[in-house]
Design goal:
The complex is a heterodimer of chains A (about 80) and B (about 190). Chain A has helices at about 20-30, 45-55; strands at about 5-10, 35-40, 60-65, 70-75. In chain A, strands 1-2-4-3 form a four-stranded mixed sheet, with helices on one face. In chain A, strand 1 (about 5-10), helix 1 (about 20-30) and strand 2 form a beta-alpha-beta unit. Chain A contains two helices and four strands. Chain A is of the alpha+beta class and about 80 residues long. By secondary structure, chain B is α/β, with parallel strands linked by helices. Chain B has a four-stranded parallel sheet, with helices on both faces. In chain B, helix 1 (about 45-60) packs parallel to helix 4 (about 130-140). The radius of gyration of chain B is 19 Å and the shape is globular. The N and C termini of chain B lie far apart (about 45 Å). The chains are: A alpha+beta (about 80), B alpha/beta (about 190).
């Protein structure tokens, strides 16, 4: 099954807390169950997106990296 | 009749959403968490984390209130405002502490403004959001900033001197109620 991404966010080059703030802003515009993808380069965002997922209840369905970039896929709760 | 006492809401009554802008139905949370920050310092290196934490908390669905008091309030003065105050001491304090979010001093290594200038250049180089950007984000995310009435009186600040979107001025009892009801409170 492929995941239908509703919105993509380019947070490359941005530092804390901007990747999270951009994701939160995007989430506000989505409906429950819709998917957002965030691409970031801030290494701290790995722990931050996991924590943000736990605090907000939005499911983190993917957290991966190719070494230089980090990819987070979240489903709105 | 002089007054009425509101009867408790009947079971099943929907209470008003404590956090406008956040859809509680879809946020997946059973209870809204609350964070209170008392922003006492006007230093750049303290205002910055206040704005990072408050904007991120609101972005995490946490109801966030910042009680702004003493030197902190000078950062929330509107651009271009000259504090006229009621006497020469208030005017002199304002002259020694140029107000506004773009004129913050560092708590250490200020060096007559060289420190903050270098910090600003480094922030742009490494794409760290400025206090101004973070303040705008925090307000857009629904963070409530409450000015301390006593500080306004002391420093000679009027409500019209403060930035748009500040809450109604309040005092220590309001701060205490906020802090004791919140899940976490910080004094910065």
């Amino acid at each position: 099954m492929t995941i239908q991404i509703t919105k993509q966010i380019d947070a490359r080059g941005l530092t804390c807390p901007m990747p999270i703030l951009k994701a939160a802003k995007a989430m506000k515009e989505l409906a429950s169950g819709e998917i957002v993808e965030v691409i970031a380069t801030d290494p701290g965002s790995v722990k931050d997106f996991a924590a943000w997922s736990r605090t907000t209840g939005h499911a983190l369905i993917e957290s991966s990296t190719d070494g230089a970039e980090f990819r987070f896929v979240l489903r709105k709760s | 009749m002089i007054g009425t006492i509101d009867a408790p809401a009947p079971a099943g009554t929907r209470l008003p959403n404590p956090m406008p802008g956040v859809d509680l139905e879809t946020s997946g949370q059973t209870a809204v968490k609350e964070l209170v920050i008392v922003n006492w310092s006007g230093d750049l290196d303290r205002i910055w984390p206040v704005l990072i934490l408050s904007s991120t908390a609101a972005a995490s669905g946490v109801k966030t209130t910042v009680f702004v008091t003493f030197w902190g309030l000078l950062a929330f003065v509107r651009d271009g405002v000259r504090i006229t105050g009621e006497n020469w001491m208030q005017r002199m304090l304002a002259a020694m502490n140029r107000p506004g979010i773009d004129h913050l001093k560092l708590g250490k290594m200020n060096f007559l403004g060289m420190g903050p200038w270098m910090m600003g250049r480094l922030a742009r180089q490494y794409r760290v959001a400025s206090p101004r950007e973070l303040l705008e984000a925090a307000q857009a995310m629904g963070v409530e900033f409450i000015p301390c009435q006593m500080t306004m009186d002391l420093l000679g600040l009027k409500r019209s001197d403060l930035i748009d979107g500040m809450g109604d001025p309040a005092g220590a009892a309001t701060a205490i109620e906020l802090m004791t009801e919140a899940n976490a409170s910080l004094f910065i």
